[in-house]
Amino acid sequence: MLELKRPDLLRTQSYINGQWVDADNGATVEVRNPSTGDVVATVASLSEVETRRAIECAEEAMKAWQKASCKERAKVLRTWYDLIMANQEDLAKILTAEQGKPLAESMGEIAYGASYMEWFAEEAKRIDGDVIPAPSNDKRIVIIKQPVGVVASITPWNFPNAMITRKVAPAIAAGCTVVGKPATETPLSALALCVLAEEAGVPAGVMNMVVGSSSRAIGGEMTSNPIVKKVTFTGSTPVGKVLMEQCAGTVKKTSMELGGNAPFIVFDDADLDAAVAGAVASKYRNAGQTCVCSNRMLVQEGIYDAFVEKLAAAVAEFNVGDGFGDGVTMGPLVNAKAVNDVDAMVQDAVDKGATLAAGGQRSDLGDCYYEPTILTQVSQDMRVFSEEIFGPVAPIFKFSTEEEAIAMANDTEFGLAAYFYTRDVGRVWRVGEGLEYGIVGINEGIISNEMAPFGGVKESGSGREGSKYGMDDYLELKYMCMGGIDK
Ligand SMILES: NC(=O)C1=CN([C@@H]2O[C@H](COP(=O)(O)OP(=O)(O)OC[C@H]3O[C@@H](n4cnc5c(N)ncnc54)[C@H](OP(=O)(O)O)[C@@H]3O)[C@@H](O)[C@H]2O)C=CC1
Ligand SMILES: O=C(O)CCCC(=O)O
Fold this sequence. Notes:
CATH superfamily of the largest domain: Aldehyde Dehydrogenase, Chain A, domain 1
CATH topology of the largest domain: Aldehyde Dehydrogenase, Chain A, domain 1
Strand order of the largest sheet: 14-15-16-13-12-17-18
Radius of gyration: 23 Å
CATH architecture of the largest domain: 3-Layer(aba) Sandwich
Structural class: alpha/beta
Oligomer: single chain
Low-confidence stretches: none
Number of domains: 2
Mean pLDDT: 98
Distance between the termini: 76 Å
Largest sheet: 7 strands, mixed
Bound molecules: NADPH dihydro-nicotinamide-adenine-dinucleotide phosphate, glutaric acid
Number of helices: 14
Shape: globular
Number of strands: 20
């Protein structure tokens, strides 16, 4: 049983137009703690009819919300930020219970998620227009920015809080209204955010959250309903492609934060200890379940053995266990299917000749645990080179030259995050510019924060979240041609 200071944050109904609602047909779905398999809550499971209702309410609410002054919108978001931080511990407990990550990581995610509220509260006041020269003196070209309209947001289970705030905060700051759908595994964090939205003064219908296990039905409604003007999604590339196709029918705007296959390159001249610390942070955060987790370690031949040895020593210090356990540094994967998927990739590598320098099997802690793993003697024909692992497995590839490292790094359809470690300033520029990625960590393993633009190129998606650029995805430019100026 979850002990919360505010038990009312744990909700089992969806939130539509300021009301807590059940499914029309009474359907429910269980939320389980991956650490223990225990049922944390049984939540209402809605579908397309209720989604359509939520979208219609969001359209109605948009009439007033888009006219709220930027200071009013900023104040609501700032209050929401304050409330999230005031309830950080309860929200973190809810997150760990449904997702499994260690409580300290959940505390970090809540603060990270809240930072988008704070940031976009500030940015709400900076939705500047523009006046630009016209081709003749009798005209002026005036640009204004207006909210794009009703936004549908579909988010994954790996960051049940922050992936929502990163979308909802700029949308609401811009004057849009939102209908959200969290992952079926992790609806509780999403619903808790709605409790605090209401307390912060977010008007009814501006923020709606539809929970349901029929993601195709809910997503189908969101992508086909002409009221929805924008779909923002974080999740797998295959699902992102389906949503983009579905959105084509009504020509919706889309933002897609999709899969990654991040290279983590260590050159011979790198600070080895810093590189190992960065590798641990970027690889094993959230048990390897983030789209910016380093997927392939590429290590230059002169430093290879020393890097493997130090990384293996660091991994041996991990304390794997229940996210609520004292001193636990790595929790379970999200479900047993994820463990099977990760294990199949490790087996594929071992069958093709890889050597295990650490881990390499399911843990006896429970169905959802996998040992932190390091693979050496790996080659490019193995699945771990080309596919997103989404688990605590580090394959360490060897390279000789800078050109080879860049070519290996770019040899993927993905282009979200990349990392490299070197002390050569010329190489910093050459490699930084040569990597075909939206985000590059240079001598740094942790690249996400609310002030930086997060997003990918190639099949990792489109659009940017966070930073001064993150608002653009929720705004339309309108050009007004002012004539009759010269007498
Ligand atoms: N870029 C990232 O951050 C993420 C990448 N992934 C990658 O995807 C793999 C599979 O994870 P998975 O959870 O299945 O990711 P999905 O892409 O399937 O799920 C992400 C979100 O999309 C929803 N969804 C799934 N199918 C549809 C659909 N047809 N229409 C509308 N919404 C849909 C899910 O809902 P529901 O939960 O109800 O099915 C969830 O809310 C991972 O192993 C990882 O490689 C996964 C999560 C995040
Ligand atoms: O995996 C994701 O989709 C989110 C990445 C977490 C982060 O913001 O760093």
